[in-house]
Specification:
Strand order of the largest sheet: 4-12-11-10-7-5-6
Order of helices and strands: HHEEEHHEHEEHEEEHEHEEHHHEEHEEH
CATH topology of the largest domain: Aspartate Aminotransferase, domain 2
Largest sheet: 7 strands, mixed
Shape: globular
Distance between the termini: 18 Å
Amino acid sequence: MTIESDLNRLREAYVARNPESQRRYQAATDVMPGGNTRSVLYYEPFPLAIARGEGASLWDADGHEYTDFLGEFSAGLYGHSHPVIRDAVINALHGGINLTGHNLLEAQLAQLVTTRIPSVQRLRFTNSGTEANLLAIAAAKRFTGRQKILVFKGGYHGGVLTFATGHSPINVPHDFVLGTYNDQAGTAALVAEHAKDLAAILVEPMQGAGGCIVGHPAFLEDLRRLATEAGALLVFDEVMTSRLAPGGRQTVLGITPDLTTLGKYIGGGMSFGAFGGRQDVMGLFDPRTQGHMGHAGTFNNNVLSMSAGIAGLSRIYTPEVAVAFNARGDALRERLNATSRAHGSTLQFTGLGTLMNLHATPEEIRHSDDIPASGQIVKDLFFFHMLDHGFYVARRGFIVLSLPLTDDDLARFHGAFAAFVDQYGKGLQK
């Protein structure tokens, strides 16, 4: 048997047991291009139609149950319908959804965020991490009077700020300078070349969508120094990595960015984003000052996200819980990698804490070019194998833990991975 034949067999079984998902997908193609409105959720032969979720479980339209190891691509930290979050949303509904003005909740959530992340002296809310990064770029350009933004190949800062393979035709037309992640010498040369025009360095402390590629501390420390010397702003995109520690990845590294962007779980799993940082930079948005920058958004302070976010940060994801939760993730990743090594497999999981990604290479992954394109077929095989064993993950091998997952869930997941390398090991060996 080959990997290709094994994959075809799993796909055929998938089609056979999911007729209702297939029917719903085919109907969706009549009204949406490709039956899809969020590209990352599509996969061949057709995506599952998810009917409902509860705790750490999902059920598809054909009635199959899956243990969720994707957690809405890190936004679903609290699982599905956590009772505290649900009650917070219901209570907000009782007070009216659209209040047409400043409400009683937004400053409470802002206070919780600024207390957790000391570098965020002032902040503003948005509807997504994409918006947060767009506003951070606008602030950096206005504050510095410059135009260029240094970003890194493999980086993802939102739907119109994506650099998976370099520049994308869907990106907003800023003047981007493209660097190589974790390349200290190359980045220093780029900053030197563009210093007089550089407004900001925008970077994820760990590239999330790019494959959970961990930023080396020395590289990120260099970015802080280089930005300061060039008179540019350092912007940490912590939309994903803020969940890795009580104060985000920046507090673990001991690096203070000028601006930080946030999103996902901080809004309790609702639509949410935020950007903030130095008081003088954020002062550009102060409507009391002449010539301030406007910042619109009907739902920036919507009561559902504000209420859910307050409940989550104050009552569920406390600093103590964040530390213990990510330690569980580190332990699982280490266990998975130990199993891979024991089987002589080429597979590894990269990442930090509760975020990790499967890769079909045993070599160190410093930047996106280190990820072999040929490994996607292995990730596809893993994806359908895990679905067959009752686990929902991302096709690209992205794994995210959520709080409702139990030790038994983690043990079963490890067991399913062990079965994967045992069953397909000959094709995955060094």
